[in-house]
Amino acid sequence: MSIPASPVRIRVTAVTPRGVRGDTGGRVKSVVLVRSETHNRSATDQHRIRSEESSVITATDLEVRAGVRTLLSAPGPALRVQAGDRIGLVGRNGAGKTTTLRILAGEGEPYAGTILRSSEIGYLPQDPREGNLDVLARDRVLSARGLDTLIRDMEKQQALMAEVADENEREKAVRKYGRLEERFSALGGYVAESEAARICHSLGLPDRVLGQALRTLSGGQRRRIELARILFSASDGSGGRSDRILLLDEPTNHLDADSITWLRGFLQSHDGGLIVISHDVELLDAVVNKVWFLDAVRGEADVYNMGWKKYLDARATDEQRRRRERANAEKKASALKAQAAKLGAKATKAVAAQNMVKRAERLLNELDDVRVADKVARIKFPEPAACGKTPLMAENLTKVYGSLEIFTGVDLAIDRGSRVVVLGLNGAGKTTLLRLLAGVEQPTAGGLVPGHGLKIGYFAQEHDTLDDAASVWENIRHAAPDAGEQDLRGLLGAFMFSGPQLDQPAGTLSGGEKTRLALAGLVSSAANVLLLDEPTNNLDPVSREQVLDALRSYTGAVVLVTHDPGAAEALNPERVILLPDGTEDHWSAEYLELIQLA
């Protein structure tokens, strides 16, 4: 039976947040479009119509700034994502990928431009917001569809039905429970709970973890819970069919090899739009069908409507074309200037000479800036401060959160210049162990025995050592209070921080930039024991290789937690500590396979 079509209803809301910025009068117009679909279609047709007509984000003439730096300048191409688009957002560290994605998600504002959003959005930032850490992990995932609140209300009514003696009160509780269960079923109910658990298990989150409060989980586990929540919001239980647009910033961080493989499949089958930032080239190659390249040299976005490998070829061709155009223009400009110099010697030809010079300048000004090789952070850990034979020991280290036992009775000795990898499944306590060794957390039992001359340098995977509210300069000054100003400016320059960027709040930096700033703090410390928790996360391939080279040449002691087999190989470790048991073993190449699975 055909149901008469209802008219399409459109509501447009225009918002101009916070008015004027700076002295140029940049204004932002954010337009939100809400549609209801026609009702004379089959369920499949309605799904297709919703996807094609409603699942859209369009950014026009976007200007993006970080502090005083212009990352994207207007005018520029319209950036549009709709159903079926799987877009890789790429560019070197610091090009503005994270900032742009945050703005598209509505979590930040551009300096100028128009953004239209007509779809629900699932946004995974690099550093998820903390929120209420007392919530159970399972409830956090279910909250994506509002099921967590319904479950709690149903449990409350169940308790009332069992406890109240008054018949009328019991009947009221029964009726309320019935209404709640109807709504629960309408939202997918018990099937949705099963779907959420399946997604979590696929991301390496077992039932044991789902029953824990977020507070007791590692940073990596909490980030995977957020990823599971977003994917659950975008899934209806039939393989990822949804018109929701997903904006994912480094979604493979903290995932093992099996989870990454599963995620690729989910994203490939997702019907809604997708924008993904990732340094995982295999994921980009398998998933994306379009690429937005943020060019840090030109401050522009180049749109490539093609897959990853074709994009690489096309971009290389574009770079060659720009070099040819510049060479030809420079040759013409040089000839014009030479001719102008000859004419300028004659008073009667002075005006013609000036016109030639202006024409030469216009030729050069109309060209793109010449591309130099992308800057690379020059990372080299300093000579470690002198210390005793065993600068750090731990005895009977135990950590318990409430009733949850992370590990017990861990003993270890870190000798001068030793190289140790900490290995264990996600949630085994690797990050917790490093936090205890760094003195950031206190053990439930046991303690540390510092040796003579101990000087610890700690790199936290969540960049906890940085003060987000403080500037880049203030952070490095705090890390090295005794260093001279010129030395610190030189150090920051080596890590690609200079000029106005020194005044930029650390909280506005991308994940890769935060990693570089935290590493700069380590370099300034002259530590003799480095505690490194995922130091290659968020880095582009070239910067990652710089970190690995620095590890190879460092002569102090290193305790490393990593999911990156290349980082472990570069360290060339002597020992491995297996958590949660605290067992110690000699390093062998077989452990490289476990690193990918851990």
Automatic annotation (TrEMBL):
Gene3D superfamilies: P-loop containing nucleotide triphosphate hydrolases. InterPro entries: AAA+_ATPase, ABC_tran_Xtn, ABC_transporter-like_ATP-bd, ABC_transporter-like_CS, ABCF, P-loop_NTPase. Residues 319-373 form a coiled coil. It comes from the Bacteria. SMART domains: AAA. One of its GO terms (molecular function) is ATP binding. Residues 57-320, 392-597 form the ABC transporter domain. Keywords: ATP-binding, Coiled coil, Nucleotide-binding, Repeat. The keyword Repeat applies. Transmembrane segments: none annotated. This is ATP-binding cassette domain-containing protein. It comes from Nocardia arthritidis.
